[in-house]
Write a structure and sequence with these properties.
Blueprint: H1 3-12, E1 18-27, E2 39-40, E3 42-55, E4 60-65, E5 73-76, H2 90-99, E6 105-111, H3 121-136, H4 143-158, H5 165-172, E7 177-182, E8 188-192, E9 200-210, H6 214-232, H7 242-247, H8 254-278, H9 282-298, H10 305-316, E10 321-324, E11 330-338, H11 342-355, E12 362-366, E13 373-374
Parallel strand pairs: 4-6
Antiparallel strand pairs: 1-3, 1-13, 2-7, 3-6, 4-5, 7-8, 9-11, 9-12, 10-11
Helix pairs in contact: 2-3, 2-4, 3-4, 3-5, 4-5, 6-8, 8-9, 10-11
The structure holds adenosine-5'-diphosphate (ADP) and magnesium ion (MG).
Length: about 375
């Protein structure tokens, strides 16, 4: 019996009907372009969230999570509406709402994705539930349909305006590959990123800091990109080449230009990165990852001293490439490193942070893994 099945029996008194899991993710490159119709290149990590679900004969949804000490949170099916239910339980309930399920269910969650580290534990939870429900109710939905449903759960039911990347990769990833996702139409291509046999690994450095700028800073930069689109009278930053954009610089104020410059060049960097990966050129790939950091730091201006120190230290001690990831002003950075350098790099970052009197960072190691699946 799957360990979560026996735990489910303990909590709810019956066996589950279905068990499914879905992974967290890291994004290699393509930062702050998912709202600009851009390309992104994430991969699924091996840490996943598993859910066990059974129909019950009541008109209630009962949710419990091992990470919330197994306490059962209950909501009447009639009360399912955006932002209803206990805060954490809105992620699974939101998926039920999004998929139109309104009959009694018991749900037990066990997540291995660290919460709030920028590895998308939220999408892992949503996608595990979406995968299980698709199976349990024979909905026959495609992976892009499930991704949209999970995103709708997070956007509307939870109230978090995230893009479509996290849910797409959690559902569509395959082992040993990164996922090239076109956020304009959700078309995908699997890109080989089988780094383990090459002695490489992707180190995630969670700075554990969150500077106050987080929300306002994100919205303001997004607004700059939208202003650039309006001022240049184009439909999308996707539709202008770098050379044309640079030639039209006089039409934009300095701040708008610099921020949109990040968007235009980042989309090209993703395509260049894919070309290099297809050629097996991990050194060239690493250089592009670092170029993305410089652009996020100097043009998009969303980095912070902790992220810069993590990136600079990783590069100084042998990383092939390194950059901040996510919204910025804190959160995590990634570094593509030789596995043999892992301890050295972690120690150097740790002592650098101590010297600078920064909070102590957390480290995770990530390898490209498979997407969501039914376990039984
Ligand atoms: P991230 O997605 O980067 O980990 P978020 O803030 O988007 O961070 O999502 C984290 C939230 O998702 C948690 O605060 C919790 O509400 C919910 N969550 C994720 N995994 C679990 C879990 N295993 N058990 C309970 N809640 C979870
Ligand atoms: Mg999240």
């Amino acid at each position: 019996m799957h360990p979560l099945a026996s735990k489910f029996q303990e909590v709810f008194g019956t066996p589950p009907d279905v068990i499914a899991s879905a992974p967290g993710r890291v994004n290699l490159i393509g930062e702050h372009v998912d709202f600009l119709d851009g390309f992104v290149l994430p991969f699924a990590i091996s840490d996943a969230t598993t859910v066990a679900i059974a129909k019950n004969s009541s008109n209630k949804i009962r949710c419990a999570s091992i990470q919330k000490k197994g306490a059962v949170s209950t909501i009447d099916c009639a009360n399912i509406a955006p932002k209803s239910g206990e805060a954490w339980a809105r992620y699974p309930i939101g998926v039920l709402w999004s998929l139109g399920i309104d009959t009694g269910l018991d749900i037990l969650v066990d997540g291995q994705v660290p919460l709030g580290a920028g590895l998308s534990s939220s999408a892992a939870l949503e996608c595990a539930v979406a995968t299980a429900i698709n199976e349990l109710f024979n909905l026959g939905l495609t992976l892009p349909e499930l991704a949209r449903a999970a995103q709708r759960a997070e956007n509307i039911y939870v109230g978090m305006p995230c893009g479509i990347m996290d849910q797409s990769v959690s559902l569509m990833a395959t082992e040993g590959n990164a996922l090239l996702l076109d956020t304009r139409d959700l078309s995908i291509e699997q890109i080989p990123f089988n780094i383990a046999p090459l002695g490489l690994e992707l180190l995630v450095i969670d700075t554990q800091v969150h500077h106050a700028l987080v929300d306002g800073g994100y919205a303001e930069r997004r607004a700059s990109c939208e202003k650039a689109i309006a001022d240049l009278d184009i439909t999308s930053l996707r539709d202008i080449s770098i050379s044309e954009f640079v030639a039209r610089k006089p039409e934009l104020d300095e701040k708008t230009y610099l921020r949109a410059f990040h968007g235009v060049t980042e989309m090209q960097r993703v395509l260049d990165a894919v070309t290099l990966l297809k050629a097996g050129d991990f050194v060239g790939f690493g250089e592009i990852v670092t170029a993305a950091h410089i652009s996020l730091r100097d043009y998009y201006t969303v980095s912070c001293p902790e992220l810069n120190l993590a990136v600079d230290t990783a590069l100084k001690f042998g990383a092939l490439g390194s950059r901040m990831i996510g919204g910025g002003f804190g959160g995590s950075a990634i570094a593509l490193i030789k596995a043999k350098d892992s301890d050295l790099i972690k120690n150097e970052i740790k002592s650098g942070f101590m010297k600078a009197r920064f909070k102590s960072p957390r480290f995770f190691s990530a390898l490209p893994s498979a997407g969501a699946r039914i376990i039984n």
